[in-house]
Amino acid sequence: MPQFAHTVWSQWHDLAVPAGFHKLSPADYPLDSSDLSQITIYVQPYMTGTEFLEPVKAMSNLQILQVPNAGYESALAYLRPGMVLCNARGVHNASTAELAVGMAISMKRGIPEFLRAQNRGEWNHKPMGSLNDSKIGIVGAGSIGQTLVSYLKPYEVEITTFSRSGHNGSVPMVNFDELLPTFDFIFLIVPLNDESEHLFNAKRLASMKDGSILINVARGRVVDTDALVAELNSGRISAALDVTDPEPLPPGHPLWSAKNVLITPHVGGDSIAFEKRGRAFIEAQLQRIADGLEPLNIITV
Question: Which CATH number is correct for 6-91+273-290, 3.30.70.1450, 1.20.120.520, 3.40.50.720, 3.40.50.1110?
């Protein structure tokens, strides 16, 4: 059997790999019936959960686990000593920020209400709000957060970003609570970890300005769902959610019928933009490895 520098498994059968690398894909090497010990670099297929992380347990020679998302919390349980975990930070910036802005405009301009009126055949003319002249707080100053800032800047808005460390020109999170009641919009775009789980609890939700809008394109567990449902049903605030807890949101869950909420099924990064950007990122990542460079986006745990 020929010896390769690396054997790479990815979702793309036609992925361009460096000389000396061997590529595998579902088309020729199904995970459920193949010898997974050959794989040294595993690229988890996009928009798959732990079902496609479980095979990592049989990849006895795996060196690099590459997840296709910015989020990586699900992969942590599958790491072994000597294995490197990388995420795809940067790949989803444009799509996720685009959806977040679209949600903000939709909520302010009353698109969900007008759509319901359209379905009833009603011409329901009424003045609505505007994204312009809003005061915006963005919790998370990473690459997606910075892209979101750039997408919002053309509007006449005031933007404040927050992060734990105060990097990238952001305000440290220790100052967040005193400023929270001043914002018309709060965008959540932080990774899920012990510090961010239920970051938006009942107390913070109650501190939001009357009429303000919470937009979550991070992870569902960043928000306390029960507290959010209660606050939404009070009619005091609104929310637009691309992520929920639990997820998928089951039929009959109270969040479906809560007041003033727009829900999309975790599609922030899942646009046609992923195919081009995701493939380009993985090909560049493999070339770095072939050139003897450290992979991009190594997660330190």
Answer: 3.40.50.720
User: Rounded to whole angstroms, how far apart are CA atoms 260 and 108?
Assistant: 11
β-bridge partners, 139: 162, 188
Q: Is the pLDDT of residue 63 over 90?
A: yes
Catalytic residues: 219, 247, 266
Mean pLDDT of the chain: 95
Distance CA 140, CA 176 (A): 12
- 85-97 mean pLDDT: 95
Q: What phi, psi does 25 have (nearest 5°)?
A: -155, 170
For domain 131-263, the CATH superfamily is: NAD(P)-binding Rossmann-like Domain (3.40.50.720)
Does the pTM surpass 0.85? The reply is: yes
User: Given a cut of 90, is residue 202 above it in pLDDT?
Assistant: yes
Cβ 41 vs Cβ 85: under 8 Å = no
Percentage above 70 pLDDT, the chain: 99
The domains of the chain are located at 6-91+273-290, 131-263
Residue 137, phi then psi, degrees to nearest 5: -115, 130
